[in-house]
Amino acid sequence: MIALVGDAGIAYDDVGSGLPVVFVHAFPLNRTMWEPQVGALVAECRCIPIDMRGLGDSAAAPPYSMDRYADDVVGVLDVLQIERAVVCGLSMGGYVAFALWRRHRDRVRAFILADTRIGADTIDNVERRRELIEMAESQGSTAVANAQIAGLMGKTSRARRPDIYDAVHRMIAQAPTDGIVGALEAMIDRPDSTETCATIDVPTLVVVGDEDVITPPKEARRTCDAIGAGARLEVLTQAGHLSSMERPAAFNTVVSEFLASLLYN
Ligand code: MLT
C-alpha cells in the first residue's frame, strides 16, 4: 500500500491485528527484510513494515534526513489512524527511531532497537560514506551491494546461508541510487543520540547479533546504559548485523516475549 505523506508516496504493508508494530529497515534495504518477522508475528500483533523514502517502493523525494524519515513513519500512522505503535528499527532503522523519539515521542508505545548505535558518525565513517556516495553515483547500486554485503552478515551466515546473502545482495543492487545517496547523507548528518536515549521512558528491547561487526555488542550495551532501567539487552548467538534475517526464530522469540510483556506495563 502507498500512503501519501506530504509530497511523497510512502510504501508500507499492514497485516494482522492488535498491538501495532512499525518495522523500519536497515540501510540500504527495504521493508521486505522484515518478512521473517511479519510471517511469524502476524498471529500476535499488527505488523506495519515501512519503506523509507527513496528505498523499496517509496518515492524518491529529497532532501533526505532522519527527521524526514521519522515524519514519514508518523505520516503512515496518521493514515492508518494509529495513535501509538511499538517501533522496531534495525541499524539505520534505529537512527530513525531516535529521531521519532525527539520529534513524536507521544506516538511511541515501546522500542525494539536492533543492531544500532547511539553515536553520531566519526570522521572516518563520514569519509567512508562519502566514498560510497561517489561509488553509488559513478558505478551504481550493484557496486554498493558488492562493497557492503560482507560486513552486513555474520561469519556464520556467510558460511552457511547463501540464500540470505543472495537476498540481501539483490535488495541492495535493486535499490535506487538516489535513495542510497540520500540515506548516506541522512546518516552523515544525524546527531549523537546519547542524550535522547536518556529521556526514553518507554519499555525498550535492545537486540544485537554476537557476530555483528558494524554495531557490535558493546554498542548495544552502550544503548542500554544510556536508556537506563527501562532497557533490556538480548544478544543473539551466531548472528551478524542483520540479526533479524540471520536468526529469525531467535529474534522473533525475544520480540514476541517483549510484546507480551507490554500487556503488563
Ligand atoms: C545499516 O545497516 O543500516 C547501516 O549499517 C547503518 C550504518 O551504516 O551506520
Sheet with most strands: strand arrangement:
4-3-5-6-7-8
Q: How many structural domains? A: 1
Which spans have pLDDT < 50 for at least 5 consecutive residues? none
Total beta-strand segments: 8
Which overall shape is indicated by the principal axes computed on the Cα atoms?
globular
Beginning-to-end CA distance, first to last residue: 32 Å
CATH class: Alpha Beta
Compute the CA-based radius of gyration.
Answer: 17 Å
> Percent of residues in beta strands?
15-25%
Task: Give me the CATH superfamily.
Answer: Alpha/Beta hydrolase fold, catalytic domain
Biggest β-sheet strands, sense, barrel: 6 strands, parallel
Specify the CATH architecture.
3-Layer(aba) Sandwich
Bound molecules: D-malate
Class based on secondary structure composition and strand pairing: alpha/beta
Question: Could you explain how this protein is built, in words?
Answer:
This protein is α/β, with parallel strands linked by helices. The chain has one domain (2-262): Rossmann fold. The protein is 48% helix and 16% strand. It contains twelve helices and eight strands. It has helices spanning 35-41, 66-79, 92-104, 123-139, 141-152, 155-160, 162-173, 177-189, 194-198, 217-227, 243-246, 248-261; strands at 2-5, 8-11, 20-24, 46-50, 85-90, 108-114, 204-209, 231-236. Strands 4-3-5-6-7-8 form a six-stranded parallel β-sheet, with helices on both faces. The protein has a two-stranded antiparallel sheet with strand order 1-2. Helix 2 crosses helix 3 and helix 4 packs across helix 5 (141-152). The radius of gyration is 17 Å and the shape is globular. The chain starts with a strand and ends with a helix. The model has no long low-confidence stretch (mean pLDDT 97).
